[in-house]
What we know:
mainly alpha; about 65% helix; globular
Amino acid sequence: xxxxxxSQESEWDGxxxxxxxxxxxxxxxxxxxxxxxxxxxxxxxxRPSALNGLPQQLRASYDEGFQAAxxxxxFEAESQIIRRSLTxxxxxxxxxxxxxxxxxxxxxxxxxxxxxKIQETLAAWRAIxxxxxxxxxxxxxxxxxxxxxANAAALKRKSKELDIEVQRVAPPxxxxxxxxxxxxxxxGYMILSxxxxxxxIQSLNILANNxxxxxxxxLLEWAKKVADHIAxxxxxxxxxxxxxxxxxxxxxxxxxxxxxx
Length: 261
């Protein structure tokens, strides 16, 4: 295996670890009751066992790629190792389910485990919806105001209920997790984060599908004012992109379509 700096190894290992977590979390027995909340392909909600063994396969393939390298493994070579390992795991998932399920799983993993920008934007919109002291819309229609208020109330209620249930069933933290300040398994926090993101997606979809273009424009202006009010970077909302019917997370390049470079 070629020699690398510790910082390189840590960064690269962290990337493959996030992919491994995406394959691993849905298989955990205690996570199964939460699967319908996480936005996974329906086939995997009903049959998470289709992912059995794939986290281990992914990690083993990645490690073997490094061990087989005869030259220093820099960024491009490491990227190829990750792509090859992921391709093998996703193709195996496709063979157990279908190409569509494997592609949808890849998109799900990218928006919740890999693509920080999407995660940050969804968290920003959730903060807008759930800010307790947000200013009221000045010009937005009665419909948009009612939809925002209804979705904000649902977001808060569902998040609180889920938090209580996750705390009840999540395994205790490992020693490393406890030293990091976690009260229970890191996967418990992932469940909360992913479910909140998916509920935010649902809220954005409702607004996109029910508001006119002018109402969406007014809503966006209101969201920017709320962002300023709660000291949130307005740019994190990504403008009107997340209020459109076609969402950015559906356009991510995927390995299985050959679009990911």
